[in-house]
Design brief:
6 strands; alpha+beta; elongated; two-stranded antiparallel ribbon
Length: 142
């Protein structure tokens, strides 16, 4: 006879049924956790950030929480790949470590999946004189 005081088994398959988590859910959790890390300016490569900047100017449109994030989700495990732009002056090693910790904690807490790896690719460095999209401004006065 099972122990009624025992905690449920971790994971997404139980005797009562299964829970399926879409890749986009893990992608959004990872993206939001990454944006909370000090020293992270933005997520995504240059083209993705430029497209996002255009989309944000459209009334009613919002930025994608999963921009710059790709995931592989299995039945019990997930892997996350991130493209980030780091603020100038921040320690890339420290920022990467904090990103990994935040993503692993967030995804594992919210989904019950084991995060087996978080790969961080620093695609650009945001300089103080750069515009919001990470590209240097033209210097013209409006």
């Amino acid at each position: 006879m099972p122990d009624p005081t025992a905690l449920p088994k971790p994971g997404l398959a139980t005797d009562q049924g299964q829970t399926a988590i879409a890749d986009v859910v893990v992608q959004k959790i990872a993206g939001l956790a990454t944006r909370e890390v000090p020293g992270v300016h933005a997520l995504g490569g240059g083209a993705a950030r430029a497209f996002s900047a255009i989309r944000e100017r459209v009334p009613g449109a919002t930025a994608s929480a999963g921009q710059g994030v790709s995931v592989e989700v299995g039945e019990k495990q997930a892997a996350v790949d991130l493209q980030v732009v780091v603020e100038y002056g921040a320690s890339i090693a420290d920022v990467s470590r904090l990103i990994r910790r935040g993503v692993i904690t967030g995804v594992e807490h919210m989904t019950g999946l084991e995060v087996v790896e978080v790969n961080v690719a620093v695609t650009d460095l945001h300089l103080p004189e750069d515009g919001e999209d990470g590209a240097a401004e033209s210097g013209r006065v409006e």
